[in-house]
Amino acid sequence: MLLQLGIMGVLVALIPLTLVWVSADANKYRKLVWVTLFLTFDLIMFGAFTRLTDSGLGCPDWPGCYGHSNPLLAHEHINAAQEAMPTGPVTWGKAWIEMTHRYVAMAVGVLIIILMVIAWRRWIKSGRTDRNFRPWFPTALFLFVCLQGAFGAWTVTMKLQPVIVTIHLLLGLTLLAMLVWLGARQNEHVPVSALGRKLTGPATLAFVLLVIQIALGGWVSTNYAALACEDFPLCHGKVVPEMDFANGFSLWRHLGMTADGDFLPFPALTAIHWVHRSFAFVVIAVVAWVAHKALKDPGLRKTGRWLLIVIALQLATGLATIYLDWPLAIAVVHNGGAALLVSLLVMLNYKARYATPVAAGIARIATIPARDAQKA
Fold first, then answer.
1. pLDDT per residue over 346-356, tens digit each?
2. Which of 189, 216, 221, 335 is within CB 3.0–4.6 Å of 48 for a Cys-Cys bond?
């Protein structure tokens, strides 16, 4: 079964690899980095779809489906489960959604292995001098995708335990952020002025706040608390509704249960939803402010403009999930918006730190007194 699953992952990976091979881009390594990034973004979106359609246990074992490499071979088990519970966690549709998610995840792993191998070969071939192929970051990506795979397995074997599923989501977005950083290193950027470099601190703060908000959003999703407050801007008609923070934010517990094994009370779900909703306004304010500042620098203007667009999209989709009773398509788009914000803020942080003009270094040398310059 493992060999068959590995072959499936390679076959899926051959599609983006072929696109890179036949592309007109002279820098195939750079192209492969960005294609891997795009596939990882798709994987995160499809992971959200898997979670939101309650397909996480569509195949209740790991890495295969009832010990097989695809649902077709497990048809007897799936038929029996579907007949026993037609709307339960195991159906034909959910099994295929879950296994498709795993196939794409394996393909991303294959592409990251290829990136690592290319980096090591090119770096050694260059006599360990080519900075564009330093292998440490691609190697870290490989180790990180192995960790992500482990949490993917625990997500299934621990029956969608909220803290494991939330960590799995955060690790997926961290993998995306690492690929954006690697991709940024391969690109040429418009130089950033001294004004733009002053945004390094605020951009870092915005990124940290966004990570906290995504963790809160993941906690909402994994606890199925998206409709715990069905009105806005109030919640159950109150600014501060009845909430149970102790049970809502008790991390180590089973899905829908308290740490003591009782059913999770509704005020706990309200607390989870209300905290995510309230903190969103802090994140929106800070990210919008950083994006507005970025518009003033030519090197950051494009990224800042996209940040404003996506943060507005996040606000709109967040409100739509409440007013429209959580439609699946909008919920998936909301998850994708979070991934886009992560990507854009990583790019903004990279540019603010490293896209500095060469002339700036020359100008600093020109300010050194002639006597000191001669000593240098």
1. 999 999 999 86
2. 335
